[in-house]
Amino acid sequence: MDIVLIASFLLFMCAFAGVGLASMWVKEDTTDDYLVASRGMHPALAALSAVSTWNSGYMFIGFIGFTYTMGYSIIWIGFGSLIGQIIAWVWLYKFIQQSANERGVRSLSSLVSEVTGSPEAKLAALFSILFLAVYAAAQLTSGGKALYVMLGWSEVVGILIGFVLVVAYCYAGGIRASIWTDAAQSGVMIIGSSLLCYVAMQEIGGFSGLHEGLAAENANLTSIVPADLNFGVSLWIFAFFLGGLSVAGQPQVVSRVMTLGTDEDRKTAMLWFFAWQIPFLLIMVIIGLASRVVFTGTDFDPELGLPMLAMETLGPFWVGLILASIFAATMSTADSQVLACTAAFTDDIMPEISQDHKKAKLVTLIVAAFATSISIFGLYVPGGDSVFALVVLAVYGLGSIFVPILIIKWAGYEPDSNHTIAMMTAALVTVILWSISGFGDDIFPSVPGMGAAFIIHFIMNQLRSSHISPLGRFELPDFKTLGIAVLVILAPITAGEVAYIIAGPDSLEGGGKSPGSWFVETDFDTEQLADGIEYINDGQTLTIEMTTDSVSNLEDINIVGVRVTLTYSEDETSSGLGCSVPGASNPDPDTVTGTILHDENNNTSSGDNSAGVSSSHFVEVEWYNSSMIGNVTGVSKSDINNGLNAGGSGLGIYTLEINVAAQSGGGIGCTNNDDGEEVEYLVELITLDYSINSL
Q1: How many CB atoms lie within 10 A of CB 470?
Q2: By the 8 A CB rule, do 148 and 323 touch?
Q3: CA triplet 495, 500, 502: central angle to 5 degrees?
Q4: CA–CA–CA angle 86, 236, 219 (5° rounding)
Q5: Of 612, 647, 644, 602, nearest to 627 (Cα)?
Q6: Could you give the C-alpha distances from 575 to 578, 656, 670, 675, 676, in angstroms and in order?
Q7: Please, is 552 exposed, middle or buried when counting C-beta atoms within 10 Å of its C-beta (0-12, 13-18, 19+)?
Q8: Spatial contact of 642 and 627, defined as CB atoms under 8 Å apart
Q9: Nearest C-alpha neighbor of 449 from the set 424, 471, 470
Q10: Mean pLDDT, residues 134-160 taken together
Q11: Least packed by Cβ within 10 Å: which of 29, 219, 297, 339?
């Protein structure tokens, strides 16, 4: 472990902690200051905090992983999300800030009702806590992954450290400490990521090398739309717009807006936000694409792209900075989410403790522990440690619950309790069912979630007051206007869908591969799985079962074969008067047979022993394509990876069977006895590390 890396990491973490602790000197021991900084935060600080909170560990880990997988088509999540965020800042955040200041509320859940603590506000608070806990868990998982890659620490250890820091941030200065720390981290994040982006691009040969590398890996990575979208490309892109709009439904980001005193402060904060957000987003896209060029193994975790790239290209001091940025950003975002949960609980679920500062802090501790439990549990559930999946569920879940209600209230429509509850429930159920169904790979759940909420809104409007426009102060268009609007919208959508069907890329996994000429350098090694010495009786078979779970870190190694070494000698005994005659007591060789079994990869081999001499033989099985080693032409990088990367097929159970067939020698007057043999066995896993270089 590099001492410089650790020292750098600790240095920056202490600096961030110092900024947060400094807020203690100006804080007030009130719940209002704890949750909304007494609504007196500087716009620049609030904006930089919003950037850090919105991006968080998701951008460093989850977004990088998604970019690694999608290639150039990632531009749509960036473009669509930015448009949605702009609309949210211009209209919805204005409504949120004004309403919050006028009513003195401190939580997003309070805004869904005119009365704090009403049934719909309580339900909104419960939904907020549910999704924010999942969101906070994603942040803790991000920090755990970063520490695992860069320092080799267990992910559980990283998560628990994150829990301690989250509680410390909250207890030190509440949202003020969080905002101050976020603002400092925003500067470090963009400096560190800019440096990493520059160095990585130098490593791969600039933008031309980036493009060539992606095309060589898989030509579909250079397509601006992904392959095999079951619902077409239009809804897929539209989902990202709604994802950006969902920023207005994120309590942890909305809380930053609630710390601003005036509408002018909001406008200033908006300019700061996008001046920081746009270049940071572009940098993250480039880093994600560069990681795809550098790391090509099929068993590589895409969400480790940024920390692994930092380890490969930067010196230890700068790696420490990157690690501190990731970890601190995740923790600070997690504490923002925990504080948002606290506001929802104290203001809406138990409004009687809304001014009790000590009880508010106790709620913070409980929520943080709940999020930590989710994060640790996710490590042991397939796909449960995917930061991107957790964030998508939380962001689009919260967006679907809150944004439709905020839109209709901004438009001047006032839903009653049943109306609001029905919209939120429909959104929640739809998001969960859509995610469980697996359709989220084609369309993120924001489309069906918000769609369900608006459908319920129109139905409830007809049931409650059909004479009132469901668009509030805006009138419904007549049929002629509606028809023209439909044609205007459908025409480009139809053209785009037809173009996608005709000219869209082939499957990202199976098509669009570019052949080339390569030199594949390999390094074979072995990892011991088991060894021992056993006496095996004549005619018997000894069965030994082993598992790779007994060896640490094998899941990160490319296992391409197994070798068994069997060693044995002759222990035949003789008796009788004739044994003194030369050659009368010669032993007959015994046959030792070894069989290794692993899934479909099996082999058997036999050997004989000799008198007075130790003998041995191998049993070996390999599962890689040796033709993909050395100079390789006419294939793609993907083909080489498919041939050499076992993709975890070497993990699991191995069974070794050893059989002894003993033969007794001897002659006239000399009787030989041979009941079996002592066999020494050594089981080694064959590992392969390789690099692919262009010729």
Answers
A1: 20
A2: no
A3: 95
A4: 110
A5: 644
A6: 8, 35, 6, 15, 17
A7: exposed
A8: no
A9: 424
A10: 80
A11: 29
Taking alpha carbons only, the member of 141, 56, 130 closest to residue 376 is 141
115-119, 210-214, 332-336, 644-648: least confidently modelled range: 332-336
What is the side-by-side order of every strand in the sheet holding 573-575?
573-575, 670-673, 666-667
Q: Are 231 and 511 in contact (CB under 8 A)?
A: no
Residues 455 and 688: their CA atoms lie apart, in Å, by 55
Phi, psi of 603 (to 5 degrees): -160, 155
Query: Tokens 């957790």 correspond to what residue?
Result: 390
CA atoms within 13 A on the CB side of 398: 31
Average pLDDT over the chain, rounded to an integer: 84
Please give the Cα distance from 211 to 520 (Å, whole number). 21
SS3 603: strand
614: left (phi over 0), alpha (psi -120 to 50) or beta: beta
- Higher model confidence: residue 355 or residue 511? 355
Task: Render pLDDT for 585-606 as a digit per residue (tens, 0 to 9).
Answer: 667 788 899 999 998 889 999 9
- Is the CB of residue 20 less than 8 Å from the CB of residue 181? yes
d(CA 5, CA 78): 32
Q: Which three-class secondary structure state does DSSP give residue 472?
A: coil
Q: For 409-441, how does the pLDDT look when each residue is reduced to its tens digit (9 = 90+)? A: 999 999 999 999 999 999 999 999 998 887 876
Q: How many CA atoms lie within 13 A of 58 on its CB side?
A: 22
Q: State the chain's maximal CA–CA distance in angstroms.
A: 120
Beta bridge partners of 541: 659
Q: 């130098």: which residue's tokens?
A: 202
23-43 burial: b if 16+ Cβ within 10 Å, else e: beeebeeebbbbbbbbbebbb
Among candidate residues 265, 272, 247, 260, the one with its CA nearest the CA of residue 100: 260
Closest CA to 107 of 376, 349, 332: 349
For residues 168 and 427, the answer to whether their CB atoms sit within 8 Å is no
pTM over 0.85: no
| Three-state secondary-structure class, residue 298 | coil
Report how far residue 456's alpha carbon sits from residue 451's, in angstroms, rounded to the nearest whole number: 9
Contact between residue 82 and residue 247 where contact means Cβ atoms under 8 Å apart:
no
Taking the C-alpha atoms of 142, 148, 153 and 159 in order, what is their torsion angle to the nearest 10 degrees? 10
- For residue 361, count other CB atoms closer than 10 A to its CB: 16
Take residue 451 and report the two structure tokens written for it.
Answer: 């769609």
Packing angle between helix 119-151 and helix 387-410, nearest 10 degrees? 150
